[in-house]
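note to self — DONT lose this again. spent like an hour looking for the file last time. sequence + predicted structure for the chain T wanted, 520 res
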Amino acid sequence: MIPDVSQALSWLEAHPHALKGIGRGIERETLRVKPDGSLALSGHPEPLGAALTHHWITTDFAESLLEFITPVDDSIEHMLTFLRDIHRHVAKNIGDERMWPFSMPCFIEAEQDIELAQYGTSNIGRMKTLYREGLKNRYGALMQVISGIHYNFSLPIEFWQARLDIKDAESGKQEISAGYFKLIRNYYRFGWVIPYLFGASPAICSSFLKGRVTDLPFEYAENGLCYLPYATSLRLSDLGYTNKSQSNLGITYNELETYVAGVKKAIHTPSAEYAALGVKKDGKYQQLNSNVLQIENELYAPIRPKRVTKSGETPSEALTRGGIEYIEVRSLDVNPFSPIGVDASQARFLDLFLIWCALADAPEMNSDEILCTRKNWNRVILEGRKPGQTIGIGCGAEFKPLADVGKALFSDLRRVAEVLDAENGDMAYQNICNELVASFDNLDLTYSARILKMMKQSGNGGLGIELAEKYRQMLVQEPLEILTAEQLSAEHLASWERQRNLEANDQLSFEEFLATRVGG
């Protein structure tokens, strides 16, 4: 049903210090909206600094799509307070606008209302906007303004030294990368538990479906709410932030060399579909190139292996240079019950689950099995709360009750929690296990069930407006706790100075710059 992790858990219990110093970081996306819940049409607010170069506040696809980034942190409480300080600062500096509290977009009248993120006149800034032009032309702008939470996670070097008997990160980079790939394979097999517990997008605004063909059996509430009764995360469905054309790339997560080769191949493989769009039309760029992927960031995946890049380095070049440094979990919906879109319960669960994924055996997976795991994810995404729902075991015909698999997993997670709590001198992780495991017997405790019940009463838009205003009032009244007004002011000024320096120091024309950075 789940791998036998008893030996690995016994090892962990004998090496509790191996988990001291877990690194975490959060990226939170949120749309700026007007008081009536419609999309803000204003540009990125000047008081928030230069989106291209600010360390903590940037934009994602659109001018109206904010993204907040915390530094790497070994304390969940400190990380979340830092994130809350960013929210407090932004709430006070966006005038009468609010931050949308859901993953799925607010009411958007027309796709052309979505302005692409602008990053100034430097070559790198123009390239970032052109990349987004390509995304818009390939997939449509609506899909790109879906918001999520990314959880960046790294195990301390002491864990890998004790587990793999390596000397240090540099000499052991192959072994550490293999360890992270094992984690990723287990995530593909069992990560559906994340949308089951925390999926918070069971419904969408009907404007999102305008002009889109779907065979999903949507139901409609009297207030116009468009929903699937047992769905957990429509954000992760084919309606949301996915790309079916990438399903045949054959990228696997067994070893660093083949993973990087697969990504590089996709970047240099021509696409007839995207070639039809044209790279240029009437002298105006439509996309960076007409390959399957314009750049590596276009690869949609529920989890990514990562390493901090050096200037001018691509993600895969960084991985080849130093191996995997951390992983990025990308399957978390914005938490509508938190003013900052995520809470400590979720962070602690992800810690437990990702440690379990690193400990459990994970046979290698070919690309067919990776596609097969998607079937389990889809069952949970579209019908996770269906009474008696089952989960496929492996790629065979064996199915087990989802609740049984979930509770078996939590039996293991509890042992990890006991180790972490013993080190921390509290019961925080075990309390999360007690709280969340109940969701397998009581479907109404899941985030998706709770938010759908509220949406049925107020509608998607009405509830979003209500929560956005509630969180705005809360955040503007709270004092900063970690960041100071002086630090925020200094970063604001420094970000604009960094952008001006980039613009002043460009040596190449934009076309020459693109030729050095992008496959043809």
